[in-house]
Amino acid sequence: MKKSVLPRKTLLLACLLATALGVKAEVKLPAIFSDGMVMQQQSNANLWGTATAGKQVVITTGWNNKQYRTKADATGKWQVAVATPKAGGPYTLTFNDGQTTSLKNVLVGEVWLCSGQSNMEMPMKGFKNQPVAGANMDVLKSKNPAIRLFTVKRTSTLLPQTDVVGSWQEAEPKTVYEFSATAYYFGKLIQEMLQVPVGLVVTAWGGSAAEAWMTEDMLKAFPDAKIPRTMRISSRKTARLQCCTTEC
């Protein structure tokens, strides 16, 4: 009898599929949870992400090697709160659902959300013909690995999101030059006064309406506020988000 031999292409395809399935099973984390992040000290900090539905996810915190266990729901989502220590680091966080994902160079300190319009959005380099007084010299002296910067990319959506576009960066001339001036000067002062790591998360959009920063449930308390149903962006060079109700 002839032995049944699988073609090489079939074996290669099977290996690729197995690899792809393995990658898919890995814990996935939003961008805010990544290498170089800062976590709020002495708090119960929420962590969340996705994994294979029904899989147990084990989170190990590097400052005390304590394990936290949770399970991904039917849609693959999971969330857990971990207790953080006094300011310190760097630490490593590991997430395991059968495969390990690690976050390195994690600091624990003070985390601040810096939000608003153009006054918060204005970078250290200034706007066109609108420089920030003294910023050039401050940028040159800005290198400080204890200050971490995260700028959320402007994205229009009508629904709450579980992830954003952005990355953590250490304070240095190249990164500070593009970062919010108001947020940087605030964070620099906090870091100098408290002598702890500081994480600054900037989410700002010049000219945005207050309603755009509120949830639908909050807006229902104000009968005159129209809840957006569709969106459009103006064609002007400095595009501004225009939210439209069903009456538009």
From TrEMBL:
Stretch forming the signal peptide: 1-25
Pfam families: SASA
Sialate O-acetylesterase domain span: 110-217
Source superkingdom: Bacteria
Alphabetized InterPro entries for the sequence: Ig-like_fold (IPR013783), SASA (IPR005181), SGNH_hydro_sf (IPR036514), SIAE (IPR039329)
Gene Ontology molecular-function annotations: sialate O-acetylesterase activity
A biological process from GO: carbohydrate metabolic process
Gene3D superfamilies given in the database record: Immunoglobulins (2.60.40.10), SGNH hydrolase (3.40.50.1110)
UniProt keywords, alphabetically: Hydrolase, Signal
Name by which UniProt lists this protein: Sialic acid-specific 9-O-acetylesterase
Lineage: Bacteria, Pseudomonadati, Bacteroidota, Bacteroidia, Bacteroidales
